[in-house]
């Protein structure tokens, strides 16, 4: 089932999320629904707050990037980079800060260059509740950090300079009022 994606300005996007356990109701169905929602919106990552849930869960699928010429050197890694992250904790971030043009399904029509560290180590449970600790680098680390920020109540626009924030203030206000056209269903704040 395709879920509505919650848009900028909705309070659920600003809450720090809570951990879940193996008894979380219909978790397998939720994960399936999140993947369907993400694919329908042409995304490569989706966090639970973006579908209105205040839980520590996000999914990624970097496989579409494997076809991009820019990523030929990591094509094989991207082709198998479809993952579920339950109760994740980033243990470390290091390497060079690098800029990359990011967007977000909750903030349509806005893309900006964001600086992030190139390497991360993350601990999480997969969809089968296997505990994992993995290292990621390059665009995979960036996707994970972007989705991880969502479960911490942080949006990529928070990482912009004050000048950039000022320049997009009007667009953000319009999104929060639902004045945006998308190919996917969205839900906006009622206040």
List keywords for this structure.
single chain; 191 residues; alpha+beta; Peptide Deformylase; five-stranded antiparallel sheet; 4 helices
Report on the architecture of this protein.
The protein has 191 residues and is an alpha+beta fold. It has a single domain, classed as Peptide deformylase (Peptide Deformylase), CATH 3.90.45.10. The chain has helices at residues 27-40, 75-79, 138-151, 162-176; strands at residues 5-6, 45-47, 57-61, 82-104, 107-125, 131-137, 186-187. The strands form 2 sheets. The chain has a 5-stranded antiparallel sheet, sandwiched between helices. Strand 4 (82-104) and strand 5 form a beta hairpin. It is globular, with a radius of gyration of 16 Å. It starts with a strand and ends with a strand. The model has no long low-confidence stretch (mean pLDDT 94).
Question: Helix/strand-derived class?
Answer: alpha+beta
Mean of all residue-level pLDDT scores: 94
- What order do the strands of the largest sheet run in, or round the barrel if closed? 2-3-4-5-6
Number of helices: 4
N→C terminal distance: 27 Å
- What is the CATH architecture annotation? Alpha-Beta Complex
Q: Provide the domain count.
A: 1
Shape: globular
CATH superfamily name? Peptide deformylase
- Using the coordinates shown, work out and report the CATH topology: Peptide Deformylase
Helix content class: 25-40%
**What is the succession of H and E elements?**
EHEEHEEEHHE
Task: Tell me the β content.
Answer: 25-35%
Q: Show unreliable segments.
A: none
Number of strands: 7
